[in-house]
Design brief:
The complex is a heterotrimer of chains A (about 350), B (about 290) and C (about 500). With about 350 residues, chain A is mainly alpha-helical. Chain A has helices spanning about 5-35, 45-50, 60-70, 80-100, 105-110, 110-150, 155-170, 175-180, 190-200, 205-220, 225-230, 245-250, 260-295, 300-310, 315-345. Chain B is mainly alpha-helical and about 290 residues long. Classes of the chains: A mainly alpha (about 350), B mainly alpha (about 290), C alpha/beta (about 500). Chains in contact: A-B, A-C, B-C.
């Protein structure tokens, strides 16, 4: 393995060790110094909690109590009080149910289960990342071709802007927001929904397709494209076999357009896009974890992570975060290796 | 003679147009809320929006300060052939670069939670500043990368060597010639995308923590932001009610009067994110970045 | 035949970039176009050939909007049967396709082989090892890439000739074809071009700053005198461009009058040893054919460093200024001793902006385009160049027109190529250095500026400055320097067997 790859691996290892060391240190501090305390006993809250006629999960009950409290005292935020009380009630129930299992937390209490959950998360992450890379490149390429076709008529332009703006609002919606909207139709704890939301929402698809589009536009401005045009390389952007711009080629993973100016542009845009994939991987992890946490998908990694935070198992929390960090690092190493292989080829070292 | 009724409208750049669209959208919503939303909810929603903007401003300031410090440290160390110092700076940056934002944020918010629980950090301004600094620390590497990319671009040409050998001081060359005179559009572009990223991250983490965090840190202690507002029962019910449209499309008008709190919060988040994306894109195109 | 005549107006927003009413190219002739860099030679040529992006500029040619102009039969014929060799060969190759693939792409894909063309341009078969390479910044070198680009044009000529399509209306444009070539390779290209021209008399437009092409044509191709059209693009006071005839005899008589400048022998102020190693190459110096121990720069003396392109002339300049690290370095400059152990901090403390200066090759890169002229000098923190008056007094001698404060407050990017080159030179001598290095100082300048430059050079030498000159313009600088001070640079490749590891480590 070449010097460059060794040095890249060494850098990754150093960073991983530093973070692992930091987390271990913080974990030890939390084990020895931090003892999670029970919620501060609030005599009024205790009084409310003891009332067995109240269903704390019922929004109507919650709203009524909040209104009563708001009327009783101006200073107290009734809704916040109700939320705390409801959470305390459900925490107590959950804690009782999970007490045995979570005495030592997930990582240190049930390591195989932790590993299984980490692997499950890695699989979903890999799948979402793969589809996102393909999707953002495909969407970016489609938008590039559309811009070169310049087809839109002015009459349709207004409606097109309206549709695309509403589309934009959906693409930029945080995934959990869409999940709540769709709750009456689709259960929000479904994995397929989570994957779909991870792909479409949170701005990932639109932002990274825009990045790919920007890369293509930058490449289009380069001298070699002009030089290729002088050689009269095909620059017909109308769809069809004459231009090689078939749907099959546009939707394909390799996006191969032999003899077309796109061949020139895509070769370089795709090479540069790999640097962006590193960024996309970290973003995907972030949005998937947020989705798992927000959608309360039981048994999933994000859900467990949030639960350990809830129980104050900070050593477990840190260990779980280290697990996520490991996934990111392994992804980065894989991307770096791919970039390195390309470097060997295109810089004439092999 | 027919008078020319066409008014000459000064041509605005697309980024300015999108800034105006954003401001107009927010203003229309404010007016609507003033008319239709009850007062306590109105105050909470717009206080949450204000707090979110404040946290964004703090996080962007933090990111700017940190990125300028680290990038100038790395560049000046390199120019002065202090490889160990430069490598330390790069390692520092690498650590932040390779930690996924969710990990950084969770760690930061855990620390904040501990500080608030232990009553070391009290007061809403301090907590909001804490939020901002946490998000700023998590995103600053993106600013640093941009600043270092600009330096690398100029190093590829003869500009850096020619200026230094002519006697231009290193700090003047770096801060004035490269960053101030030649990177301002890049910096503004980064600030726009950083603003969007901050809103997304802040709202998401705030939402997640407000939905799921412990009873030991009651949201009573945390000032409202759009994320925590969205986590409120009322807002969640409002968002859920959008789903009713799939079975009863005629429910649509009721959304804008009966479910205004959640809808306002969701609109503020999504509209701001979409507009910042459009502003950033138009700005990139205008300045050919 | 009727000349091809164009009028053009090119602007961006409300800012006019170029306006010309009489850009004429003689059909069936070899047109050679001079003019300082940045004046608009490339833009007008690309625009008439149909290569400018209509989305970025507002263009009108022959009173037609650009989109309409692009649809004319003339442009379609230019694009179909002509060819345009772009300048700056480094950016004209796709880094993800091999040279071979690009040399045989689209119009160039034919049964004809390019082997003869390449052998002629290389005068050897070294090109064979370059064909499977992916083009990178330094490999193939700039000169090699330039020859591949020229080969593409020559190949297209052969393809067209084979189909009887190479006619007087066929237009081939070469933008700075010798910008990265030594005279030997330039001449090899010209020979190939002319042999094809003599068979088919098509139209050629050569855009160049290389005035030494004039004596070459006169001495080697005198039979073509009536087939040559010499042109110069100039700007009027109102900012409009004019395409005027250029009189080649004027250059030839000026060149004949040139004589060596400065002293034959002065006091040595800089001394760089032979045998220094940089970037895997051992550099050594020769006077004539005799190896010498070191490169000595002497006060009041013009030292001319010569070598084929790519050998490392600029590397020597960078070693002298501490911009590159050299193994076995033994350098004495302005009374200070430097070895391989010194760092740039030492050069910064003792030399830069004080004892030695360098005017870098590309003024466009060396200067900050968005700085004002005044800021270029105030950035130096030189107490003698703080006020407007001080800066105006300093600059006035190298400018023909009377300079004023408006000139100082203008941004560098709006200056012409020649003005930028002069500004670049003036910044490097602002600190009155004892040693001055000039790297390709005639790049991109017109004949007027060349004449002015030789005047500046003379004054600097009279003031006792030791000047190191790096240039491939041998026809001019061989005459301006004494034979004793013409030094040849040699480079021996080291560590070839371990090149992969070295390249990897360096990058």
């Amino acid at each position: 393995m070449g010097q460059i790859m060794k040095s890249i691996l060494f850098n990754h290892l150093v960073v991983f060790l530093i973070i692992a060391g930091l987390f271990t240190g913080l974990g030890l501090v939390s084990v020895f110094l931090y003892h999670p305390e029970k919620a501060e006993s609030n005599p009024e809250m205790t009084k409310w909690l003891q009332d067995s006629t109240i269903n704390w999960q019922d929004p109507l009950h919650q709203a009524l109590i909040a209104d009563v409290l708001d009327l009783k005292s101006v200073e107290q935020d009734g809704e916040a009080f109700v939320r705390s009380a409801a959470r305390l009630k459900s925490d107590e129930t959950a804690k009782t149910l999970e007490q045995l299992r979570h005495q030592k937390g997930l990582v240190f209490g049930d390591f195989p289960d932790f590993l299984l959950k980490l692997l499950g998360f890695s699989f979903i992450f890999g799948l979402v990342l793969f589809i996102l890379v393909w999707g953002s490149q495909t969407l970016g390429l489609y938008r590039f071709i559309r811009s070169k076709q310049g087809k839109r008529t002015s009459g349709k332009q207004f409606w097109h802007s309206v549709y695309s703006f509403f589309g934009l609002l959906i693409l930029f919606s945080p995934g959990y927001l869409i999940a709540y909207m769709l709750k009456p139709l689709i259960p929000s704890d479904s994995i397929i929904l989570m994957i779909s939301l991870g792909l479409i929402t949170n701005g990932a698809l639109i932002v990274y397709s825009q990045k790919f589009l920007n890369l293509m536009n930058q490449e289009m401005d380069k001298g070699y494209v002009l030089a290729a045009r002088i050689r009269n390389v095909n620059e017909n952007f109308e769809n069809g076999h004459q231009s090689n711009l078939t749907w099959k080629a546009i939707l394909g993973f390799h996006k191969h357009f032999p003899g077309h100016i796109l061949h020139h542009i895509l070769l370089n845009a795709k090479r540069q896009y790999w640097n962006t994939v590193r960024e996309l991987a970290a973003f995907t992890i972030t949005s998937l974890i947020i989705l798992e946490m927000a959608l309360n998908i039981q048994g999933r990694y994000g859900y467990e992570l949030l639960r350990q935070v809830l129980y104050g198992n900070y050593a477990d929390v840190l260990a779980m975060m280290l697990g996520l960090f490991l996934i990111v690092k392994l992804t980065e190493v894989a991307i770096d290796f791919h970039i390195y292989k390309q470097k060997l080829k295109f810089e004439n070292w092999k | 003679m027919t008078p020319n009724l066409k008014m000459k409208i000064p041509s605005l750049s697309n980024d300015t147009k999108w800034i105006l669209i954003w401001l107009a959208g927010i203003s229309v919503l404010l007016v609507w809320d003033l008319v239709f939303l009850n007062k306590p909810a109105l105050v909470r929603v717009w206080l949450g929006f204000g707090n979110t903007l404040l946290v964004s401003a703090i996080s962007l300031t933090t990111a700017l300060l940190l990125s300028f410090t680290v990038s100038s440290w790395i560049t000046l160390s390199r120019w002065n052939e202090r490889p160990k110092l430069a490598r330390t700076g790069e390692l520092f940056l690498n650590i932040f670069r390779s930690v996924p934002q969710i990990i950084g944020l969770l760690t930061g918010f855990l620390i904040l939670t501990l500080l608030v629980t232990a009553e070391i950090m009290t007061g809403k301004t301090a907590i909001l500043t804490g939020f901002g600094v946490t998000v700023g620390v998590v995103i600053f590497y993106e600013f640093s990368d941009m600043l270092l990319e600009r330096v690398a671009w100029f190093e590829q040409t003869d500009f850096v060597s020619a200026s230094r050998t002519a006697g231009v001081p290193d700090t003047h060359l770096l801060f004035i010639e490269i960053w101030m005179r030649n990177s301002l559009p890049h910096l503004i572009n980064k600030l726009i995308s950083g603003f969007g990223a901050t809103i997304f991250l802040l709202c998401s983490i705030d939402f997640v923590l407000s939905v799921g965090l412990s009873s030991s840190v009651s949201p009573i202690n945390f000032p409202p932001t759009l994320g925590s507002m969205l986590a409120q029962i009322d807002s969640k019910q409002d968002i859920l009610s959008i789903g009713i449209l799939f079975t009863d499309p005629f429910y649509f008008p009721s959304l804008f009067t009966r479910h205004l709190q959640g809808l306002s919060v969701a609109f503020l988040i999504v509209f701001t994110l979409a507009c910042s994306f459009k502003i950033g894109n138009a700005f990139t195109r205008r300045h050919r970045l | 035949m009727k000349p091809l005549t164009f009028s053009a107006d090119i602007s961006v927003g409300s800012h006019s970039i170029l306006s010309i009413t009489d850009f004429s190219i003689e059909q069936g002739k070899i047109n050679v176009l001079f003019g300082e860099s940045g004046i608009g030679k490339t833009l007008i040529s690309k625009s008439i050939f149909g290569l400018t992006d209509p989305d970025k500029l507002s263009i009108e040619i022959n009173s037609l909007g650009y989109q309409d102009y692009l649809k004319t039969e003339q442009v379609e014929a230019f694009r179909k049967n002509g060819f345009f060799v772009l300048q700056e060969p480094s950016s004209q190759f796709n880094p993800s396709l091999t040279i071979q693939e690009q040399l045989n792409e689209a119009d160039l894909n034919s049964d004809l082989t390019e082997a003869d063309i390449l052998s002629g341009l290389w005068q050897s078969d070294q090109w064979k090892s370059l064909l499977p390479l992916y083009p990178q910044s330094f490999r193939p070198s700039g000169g090699e890439k330039q020859r591949f680009l020229l080969a593409m044009a020559l190949k297209k000529m052969d393809n067209l000739a084979n189909q009887n399509q190479l006619k007087p209306e066929t237009l081939f444009i070469f933008d700075e074809p010798s910008g990265s070539l030594d005279n030997g390779f330039r001449n090899a290209f010209l020979e190939q071009l002319i042999s094809r021209y003599q068979q088919n008399r098509f139209t050629v437009l050569v855009i160049t700053h290389d005035y030494t092409i004039i004596p070459w044509f006169k001495n080697h191709k005198s039979e073509l005198t009536s087939n040559l059209s010499w042109l110069e693009l100039t700007k009027t006071d109102s900012g409009e461009l004019q395409c005027n005839p250029f009189f080649p005899d004027e250059f030839i008589s000026w060149q004949k009058k040139l004589s060596p400048m400065g002293l034959i022998k002065g006091v040595a102020v800089a001394d760089l040893n032979s045998g220094v190693i940089c970037h895997g190459r051992q550099l050594s110096f020769q006077s004539g054919t005799k190896p010498i121990e070191s490169l000595k720069l002497k006060s009041g003396t013009l030292t001319y460093l010569k070598a084929p392109s790519g050998v490392g002339k600029t590397t020597v300049a960078r070693l002298l200024l501490g911009l590159y690290h050299g193994e076995n370095l033994q350098l004495s400059i302005c009374g200070y001793e430097f070895t391989s152990l010194n760092t740039q901090v030492d050069w910064k403390k003792l030399i830069w902006g004080k004892k030695a200066g360098m005017a870098f090759q590309l003024a466009d890169e060396a200067l900050n385009p968005v700085s004002t002229v005044k800021q270029v000098f105030t950035a130096l923190k030189n107490p003698k160049l703080k006020t407007n008056d001080q800066i105006l007094d300093f600059l006035q001698p190298v400018f023909l027109k009377k300079l004023d404060e408006a000139f100082l407050s203008g941004q560098v990017k709006y200056l012409s190529g020649g003005q930028k080159q002069r500004l670049n030179l003036m910044r490097s001598i602002a600190s009155e250095p004892e040693v001055l290095i000039l790297d390709e100082p005639l790049n991109g300048v017109d004949f007027r500026t060349i004449k002015m430059f030789t005047g500046i050079l003379e004054k600097l030498l009279q003031n006792g400055t030791a000047i190191l000159l790096i240039s491939h313009n041998e026809e001019i600088f061989d005459k301006l320097s004494f034979k004793e001070n013409q030094i040849q640079l040699k480079a021996d490749e080291l560590l070839k067997e371990n090149a992969f590891t070295t390249e990897e480590t360096e990058s």
